[in-house]
Protein 1
Amino acid sequence: MKPTLFLLAAGMGSRYGGLKQLDTLGPQGQSIMDYSIYDAIQAGFGKIVWVIRRDFEEQFRTQILAKYEGHVPCELCFQSLDALPEGFTVPEGRQKPWGTNHAVLMGKDVIKEPFAVLNCDDFYDRDAFRVMAKFLSELPEGSKGKYAMVGFRVDNTLSESGTVSRGICENDEKTHLLTGVVERTKIERRNGVVQYLDDNGEDWVSIPDTTPVSMNFWGFTPDYFDYSEAYFKTFLSDPKNQANLKSEFFIPLMVDHLIKTGQATCEVLDTTSKWFGVTYPEDRPEVVAKLAALHEAGQYPAQMF
């Protein structure tokens, strides 16, 4: 069975100042998600599912979905603030969505096969899709609790504009299984070496260029939905999360819980892919130039769909 690509598209991109999922960045007006879907189909993914908000469903169907429906099966699901387990209600005053793993939960009714989850406003490059498709398609039928994460080499995720925040992966060197992810908020190349600023904010620590980091590209089997539903109830019941109107149920939080409780493993998949994305408006010209260069090099056709 071919795996499914599950794209997280419910955010508005507040720092970017617009709906960057629909921004035309490629030379023929392509969005970044066009490249993800093109690379996913080439890698062997058999279905595309998006999680979006209902208030831009019509625009999404017109601008996005219509392009792909003749090429690959497509489905939509919807994230809303009040999509909660029975017995739970939205805390008074809360406006912020519940986070990436809540968005993943919205796909339970339409995804019954192994699937990959990723942001649709990041460029991941084709090798990342290749390694994930290979992992998911080679899982024995009925597999449970055997997940994966694409571990991008930190050197391939740096910015020329300054420091970046990345989740540095800790994994067993023999099994390549993830043991933890440590968030580092300031990483850059200094004097020719990749370094991050340590917790005391004073010392820079050197790491190899090939150190794997998480860019939110995960692979799961359908049992992940059941685990997530159960743990989401625990998350919602926590008084700290009830009091904090901006608390979020993130994918790394869920994966970390499953690893530490022995319910699942997560293999870190190495890739040669180079990541880039649009976080701030100032990033846009550089992304446009990089995509144009990929077309000029023949990596993508002028007419992708």
Protein 2
Amino acid sequence: MKLLITVRYVGTRYCGYQVQPNGPTVQAALCAAAEALFGFPCDIVGCSRTDSGVHAECFCATISRRGEDYLPTNVPVERIPRALCRHLPEDIAVWGAKWVPPSFHARYDVLEKVYTYRIWNRHERDPFLADRAWHYPCPISDAQFSAMRDAAQRYVGEHDFAAFMAQGSSVTSTVRTVTAASVERQGDLILFRVAANGFLYNMVRIMAGTLIAVAEGKIAPDEIDDILCSRDRNRAGITAPACGLCLSQVVYSPEFCI
């Protein structure tokens, strides 16, 4: 059996999830912690590849012995999260663990992912949200906010999201199904939430940047449909900063939920 874990991390000081030769990564930290706990090198397979500076409230990954599809250990599964945390830095924590079959794949068995993008909309910056939200100081009026909500709804459905993908990306298909997209206000904090069966490189950050362009009057809400059809990255908004993005939820079949 493999071990499926849920992880929370602040991505500010990491070069993304996946191991990189030029800096610290979340995957490298998890590999080191797993080897320290179990006594042998482990393979860590994540549900996604979050970028540098991106955070996760619920990231899922499997642990198995290096080159194998099982994890031999006598440590009770309920104790593994705390045991791994003892070997992890303060900005990474394991919150849950569950045994899954060898055939389970942390990435390919995902049914849906939910991302949240946070925008701090106030003239003054908030030190407590530094590196956790995009500081956008220009006031967004109720009318502008309503336009953002209208635009977000146009993301919902099965579309070709090539216009919302970083240029130069190499993928087999740019078609994705967005099941929900919403924009809400919590005081001065604006939250853009989007759920889909998969995401392209920088897709959520470009969606967020496009919503700000809508608020600024540069793009009308009903232009989202034309931008999607155009498949032209230059017609969408800017790529919003990584600091505001957080992976909020990963959905599997009920039997794999922790």
Protein 3
Amino acid sequence: MNLTTYQATSLAFTVDGPVATLTLNRPDRKNPITFDSYAEMAAIFRAAVTDDAIRAFVVTGAGGNFCSGGDVHEIIGPLLDRDTKGLMAFTSLTGSLVKAMRACPQPIVAAVDGVAAGAGAIIAMASDMRIGTPRARVAFLFNRVGRAGCDMGACAILPRLIGQGRASDLLYTGRALGAEEGLAWGFFNRIVAPETLAADAATLARELAEGPSFANAMTKRMLQMEWAMSVEQAIEAEAVAQALCMTTGDFRRAYEAFVARRKPVFAGN
């Protein structure tokens, strides 16, 4: 899959230079996710592993909302007729999206306006950074539909973002996390006006894309790998990671720019 020429079918997908934007695009229903959009988003992020032209992603929703979660009629209803094997196929599909988001080397910025519920909350959570608006409402509401809060990695990732007690609050109650509370808790990196959300997210993604992409990918990888390491193991792993980064052309470009008293222009290698 060549992402620079890819034509999406279940969502809007655009590429502007080194930044690709995925937009859940069913605004009349607050952008619910479907079987097809789960699979297509995962395929895009898997393809990004070998696509050096794309250096950052933005994920967002159309029409003033991010994503209302799994489509009630196209996902929830049909699941009632599945046996255990069929249900496992579905939960594996949903989990594959988060795994693809975490495995792709490019940083992902979630631009969250309005509702981000269920799978929408998970997609925001699984992104590397989150920009919200004052209207943003994030709800991990799985328990409200008779399911556990441990969905798509929520019990692993969310406590690392906001802490165990706060994650327990959201996952047990299913209540909505508002914008200011989400900012104070560390879920959101920043809050911006709804009318500037798209531009602010694009600016942040472009700033990340203009950075040293090999080093950024290494940062993302180590942030994830070090969850399961002791401090001693992490220090050793980071020593290897930094040594590898120092073999890149971007490391030399940064030095040469510093000597010349100019801003470095990274090439991604």
Protein 4
Amino acid sequence: MPSTTVTTVLASPACVGFRKVHGAGNDFIFINGPFEHADLPGLARDLCTRQTGIGADGLMISTRLSGDPPAYQVRCLNADGSEATMCGNALRCAAWCAAADHGHTEVTMIMAGVRHRGQVHGGEVAVTADAGPVQRSAAVVEDDGQVYEFDAVHTGTEHAVTFVADVDAVDAESLGRIVRYHGSFAPAGTNVSFVQPAGPGVLRIRTYERGVEAETLSCGSGAVAAVVAARARQLTSEDAVTVRNRAGAPLTVRPDPASPGRTFWVSGPASIVFTGQI
């Protein structure tokens, strides 16, 4: 595994180890906690900048709370320094690192006060996400003569989902930015997903992520939102739905048998790209 050293401004002159990790293309700078910094949002912005920092969609700090049963406190700061209330791929990466470090294949993770379960089986990592009810047509937006109906669904964070005939034909960056700030989703704003039904049990997706303020290659909570919204519109009825993202590393979303209709498992690959010190 390659290693690197990145020079940046820390509160202390001591170096801190990190891993560059990604979950289905959604990439993070991972630090084992406890870790404190006088300006954590500023550090996240500096480190996540792709031209002058390490480059990532977010900075993640995972602190072990207990070993039996294994539990972790996971914080995820977006590339703009804001703190995420839910990030499915960050949680999957945290579970992957817990398995690599301690052999924990089943873990509890707490993000923004919400408890999630994680499982690691071979190269597949799955975590739970809770979904609220779907608000149909929460916003209607016209762009270049095309009308888009956006459904709102909360999967630990706000999501707006619209269904299109061809995701490749959508200007996800431009339209996503418009909808992210749409008055219907004020004041918090929203993540924005464009979803194409692509056969039985298959959805194609592109997501503009709030906090990254750009289209990302993958979004775990967005994949759950897409499936929940598709079920509400009767566009899919399969138990397990494959969500194909721009990374080419699909995620699978399936209901949790213990809480069908409320809790979902989102699973897919996760990888440690390289290690280094900051």
